[in-house]
Amino acid sequence: MVKVNFDVGFRAASNTSSTKVIAGENSGMILRAFVHTSCFVPLVFAVEAIACVKALQFAKDMGFQRLVLEGDSRMVIKWIISNSVDHSSVTAYINDTRSLNSQFLVCKVKHTLRDGNWAAHQLAKEAFDREESLFWVEEALA
């Protein structure tokens, strides 16, 4: 089973965000990762929901079938796990996440504390200094 951690960084002054996703083994070995910076993002909560969608899409694109998805946004994780209907500004992203989730053989969704998401959080901070998306596939993270 692959563990997929996602996290975001958000700069309200410039409405920019960075998304990072790390896929690794239980041993801690990183298998794949990516960072992406976006502009004109209005709310940090929307960024967290979008990052969750990106994490699942990344896992799907990498061919993972059994995974544990972890993020440190308690509300996003809570909405994904629940079957309740949400009418907020992130409804479409929550629905996209639920749809992608159903395409895996196993996809456990869990909340993690920031400490449990440390590597993804560090990548998010670093991503602000880059203008292009970066992907690491079967190579060392620098």
TrEMBL record:
InterPro entries: RNase_H-like_dom_plant, RNase_H-like_EbsB-rel, RNaseH-like_sf, RNaseH_domain, RNaseH_sf. GO terms for molecular function: nucleic acid binding; RNA-DNA hybrid ribonuclease activity. Residues 5-127 form the RNase H type-1 domain. This is RNase H type-1 domain-containing protein.
